[in-house]
Design goal:
This protein has a single domain, classed as Rossmann fold, CATH 3.40.50. It starts with a helix and ends with a strand. The protein has a four-stranded parallel beta sheet, sandwiched between helices. A two-stranded antiparallel sheet has the order 1-2. A two-stranded antiparallel sheet has the order 5-6. The mean pLDDT is about 85. By secondary structure, it is an alpha/beta fold. Helix content is about 40%, strand content about 15%. β1 and β2 form a beta hairpin. The protein is built from nine helices and eight strands. Belongs to the ComF/GntX family. This is ComF family protein. It comes from Thalassotalea castellviae. InterPro entries: ComF/GntX_DNA_util-trans, PRTase-like, PRTase_dom.
């Protein structure tokens, strides 16, 4: 019986490798840029020309921290995180990518966004060693309704490219609430009170945490989580996000 189980296990391993290779080959042969449809891509969904044209934040004068930009620093006056890294403002094409990902279930965009975030992270000169990734959790009921958590899928893609440990079950959402779109920061903070908890399986956390989310509007959600992490002894928190909603 043990021999049979061993053979079955080896068979599944070989099948998994076979299908993974087929998927990679398919991506290579069918890849085209999401924006210009060019076949000359640096990622299965993006070419070098369109990558160079993306409206990315420039970190040249901000020491790889958007909080050093006074206009953004003012957006988060009572924050519990030390570093903010974001790809771009919530404008095209990132706004449409996030909408398509979340509502049209275009899961391939998770890998593209994870790739872009990894490219941003790798440009940093000083990277701490004692670091791990966490993603903003959603309530189990909402996960069941939607079928996925977009922050988790992006974090998983980011983890694959950076090899930074991903503690995917360290955080959990304890209260259920409807969408916070359009709500004020004050109301968001009220709804988020006692909304999150650390998993009982987590004894200690690294000194540096990368907290990943898809988009930040008021910062209330990530700041609530950062306060919780600081109580657990985390010294430095980098909030990493795809897009940032800027005031009009």
């Amino acid at each position: 019986m043990e021999l049979d189980n061993k053979i079955v296990g080896q068979l599944f391993t070989h099948l998994h490798r076979y299908f993974a290779e087929c998927l990679t080959l398919t991506r290579q042969t069918m890849s085209e840029c999401e924006l210009c449809k060019s076949a000359h891509v640096i990622h299965p969904l993006l070419c070098q020309y369109c990558y160079d044209d993306l409206p990315l934040f420039s970190y040249q004068h901000f020491g790889f921290n958007l909080l050093n930009w006074p206009a953004i620093d003012k957006l988060f006056p009572q924050r519990s995180f030390e570093q903010l890294l974001c790809l771009a403002p919530y404008i095209a094409p990132f706004d449409q990518w996030l909408i398509d990902f979340k509502y049209q279930k275009r899961f391939e965009l998770a890998d593209l966004l994870g790739y872009l975030l990894a490219e941003l992270w790798q440009k940093q000169v000083n990277k701490q060693q004692d670091v791990a990734i966490l993603s903003v959790p959603i309530h189990l009921k909402k996960w069941q309704q939607r079928g996925f958590n977009q922050a988790h899928l992006i974090a998983r893609a980011f983890n694959r490219r950076t090899k930074i440990p991903y503690l995917r079950q360290a955080l959990r959402r304890t209260t259920y609430s409807k969408s916070q779109v359009g709500q004020s920061g004050k109301l968001r903070r009220k709804l988020l009170k006692n909304a999150f908890a650390l998993s009982e399986e987590v004894d200690t956390l690294p000194s540096h945490i990368i907290l990943l989310d898809d988009v930040i509007t008021t910062g209330s959600t990530v700041n609530t989580l950062c306060k919780l992490l600081k109580l657990k002894g985390v010294k430095h928190i980098t909030v990493l996000t795809v897009a940032l909603t800027l005031p009009k």
